[in-house]
């Protein structure tokens, strides 16, 4: 399974792509940021859409994973973040990808083991879990963490499904 994680932002949107092997092994594919230019919000949203679409076209993921919106300090920030999320999800849906969402708490727990982890801890664990030689930039690390989170949840769901299937056959 190939997973594309997205860390949405109106100025910088991080992306991270991993492969998940059938045994649960994780492999780094690519990561980076879509940096928006221009003064209008609509132009920034188009840049995010185009950038995420280009990543999807280049790497053909199986699923798109986006961090759910958290409480922002002000309504304007929350609105802009929500629009960036929506554009990223729309890019995935337009490429016929399933879109999954996880909270920051779920992502940090899955990657670091602590839902209150700091950005530096997330960066470090992403580096360790993917065997990277360097530390990814914060937005790319957060996007990779989204992808890793989905991989862990998907493996857990698959294990439960296999276990329920064995139990049903045994009864």
Please explain how this structure is put together.
- The protein is of the alpha/beta class.
- It has one domain (2-170): Ribonuclease H-like superfamily/Ribonuclease H (Nucleotidyltransferase, domain 5, 2-Layer Sandwich), CATH 3.30.420.
- Helix content is 54%, strand content 20%.
- The protein contains 5 helices and 5 strands.
- Helix 1 (41-59) runs parallel beside helix 2 (75-94) and helix 4 (119-130) packs across helix 5.
- The longest helix has 33 residues, at 138-170.
- It starts with a strand and ends with a helix.
Task: Give the helix/strand layout.
Layout: E1 2-7, E2 12-20, E3 26-35, H1 41-59, E4 63-67, H2 75-94, E5 98-102, H3 104-111, H4 119-130, H5 138-170
Parallel strand pairs: 1-4, 4-5
Antiparallel strand pairs: 1-2, 2-3
Helix pairs in contact: 1-2, 3-5, 4-5
In short:
By secondary structure, the chain is an alpha/beta fold.
| Spatial order of strands in the largest sheet | 3-2-1-4-5
Return the structural class.
Answer: alpha/beta
Counted by DSSP, the helix tally is 5
Oligomeric state, counting identical vs distinct chains: single chain
CATH superfamily: Ribonuclease H-like superfamily/Ribonuclease H
Major sheet: 5 strands, mixed
Indicate the CATH class.
Answer: Alpha Beta
State the helical fraction. 40-55%
Poorly predicted tracts of residues:
none
CATH architecture: 2-Layer Sandwich
Shape: globular
| Number of separate structural domains | 1
Radius of gyration computed on alpha carbons: 16 Å
Ends distance? 32 Å
Beta strand count: 5
CATH fold-level label: Nucleotidyltransferase, domain 5
The mean pLDDT is 90
Binned strand content: 15-25%
């Amino acid at each position: 399974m190939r997973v594309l994680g997205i860390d949405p932002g109106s100025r910088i949107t991080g992306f991270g792509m991993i492969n998940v092997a059938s045994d649960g092994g994780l492999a780094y594919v690519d990561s980076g940021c879509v940096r928006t230019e221009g003064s209008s919000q609509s132009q920034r949203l188009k840049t995010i859409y185009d950038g995420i679409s280009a990543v999807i076209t280049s790497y053909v993921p199986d699923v798109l994973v986006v961090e759910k919106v958290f409480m922002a300090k002000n309504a304007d920030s929350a609105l802009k973040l929500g629009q960036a999320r929506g554009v990223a999800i729309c890019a995935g849906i337009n490429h016929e990808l399933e879109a999954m969402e996880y909270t920051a708490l779920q992502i940090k727990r899955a990657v670091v083991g602590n839902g209150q982890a700091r950005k530096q801890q997330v960066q470090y664990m992403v580096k360790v879990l993917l065997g990277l030689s360097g530390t990814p930039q914060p937005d790319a690390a957060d996007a990779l963490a989204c992808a890793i989170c989905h991989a862990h949840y998907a493996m857990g769901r698959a294990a439960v499904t296999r276990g329920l299937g064995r139990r049903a056959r045994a009864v």
